[in-house]
Amino acid sequence: MKKDCILEFENVTKYYGSELVFNNVDLKIKKGEVISLVGKSGSGKSTLLKCINRLEGINAGKIKFKGMEISEISLVELRQKIGIVFQDYNLFEHLTVLDNLTIGLIKIKGYSKKESVHKSLNVLKKVDLADKMDKYPDELSGGQKQRVAIARTLLMEPDIILLDEPTSALDKEMKDSVLALINELVDEDMTLIVVSHEDEFINKVSDRIFSFNKHTLLEKKNG
Ligand SMILES: Nc1ncnc2c1ncn2[C@@H]1O[C@H](COP(=O)(O)OP(=O)(O)O)[C@@H](O)[C@H]1O
Ligand SMILES: [Mg+2]
């Protein structure tokens, strides 16, 4: 394995029951790369992301994170190192913005309450939501909720972030605030795998763009 290869698919095949989703996916992703996955609904994009952090199992092949098969990494560790952000935020509705962030630091990272609050406030500033720390999710716009969801993922200090249609549920202005934040992650050399229909944005930020064609992952030629 080359040292800068952070995630590797070797001949990965995935079925749901007898239904083939994708076949023989072979892909090496380097640290800091921005990989996008585009294409038709139902083609397998979400499934591919879910296989990376073991929300779904695979039927054949190997997925390796930093050279180690993901099946040999504990779920807690894998999901800290590889964060996933969905279209619909998955925030805890009964917790404030701040508590949505600190809970993971306290329970998963084992930080003290004080340290968790300190780290969370720093990340809230980064996503431009420090003034919303005491609000509940239903008091936020969709774009703000999605930025909280991204903040929560960032707090785990992941090596890779998977974004599954992060702006699909949002209208134009809200989209822009989330795309601006993703753009910041790109500038900071975060390794990203993005599923999105925002073609202009995707063309701008991606190092490589892929789509599924008849269950096979193909790289799209740019330009
Ligand atoms: N949990 C599941 N059980 C069975 N089939 C599924 C499940 N999730 C997705 N599928 C099917 O797998 C295919 C790929 O779905 P998905 O990965 O969600 O596609 P995309 O994200 O590209 O829209 C679709 O045919 C979908 O109906
Ligand atoms: Mg999907």
Description:
- With 223 residues, the chain is α/β, with parallel strands linked by helices.
- It is 35% helix and 27% strand.
- The protein is built from 7 helices and 10 strands.
- The strands form 2 sheets. The protein has a 6-stranded mixed beta sheet, sandwiched between helices.
- The chain is globular and about 45 Å long.
- The structure holds adenosine-5'-diphosphate and magnesium ion.
- Adenosine-5'-diphosphate binds next to α1.
Briefly, what is this?
The chain has about 220 residues and is of the alpha/beta class. It has helices at about 45-50, 75-80, 95-110, 115-125, 140-155, 170-185, 200-205, and strands spanning about 5-15, 20-30, 35-40, 60-65, 70, 80-85, 160-165, 190-195, 210-215, 215-220.
Characteristic terms for this protein:
single chain, 223 residues, alpha/beta, Rossmann fold, six-stranded mixed beta sheet, four-stranded antiparallel beta sheet, 7 helices, 10 strands, 35% helix, globular, binds adenosine-5'-diphosphate, binds magnesium ion
Please outline the helices and strands.
Layout: E1 5-16, E2 19-30, E3 34-38, H1 45-52, E4 60-65, E5 68-69, H2 75-81, E6 82-85, H3 97-109, H4 113-126, H5 142-155, E7 160-164, H6 172-187, E8 191-195, H7 199-205, E9 208-213, E10 216-219
Parallel strand pairs: 3-8, 3-9, 6-7, 7-8
Antiparallel strand pairs: 1-2, 1-4, 4-5, 9-10
Helix pairs in contact: 3-4, 3-5, 4-5, 5-6
The structure holds adenosine-5'-diphosphate and magnesium ion (MG).
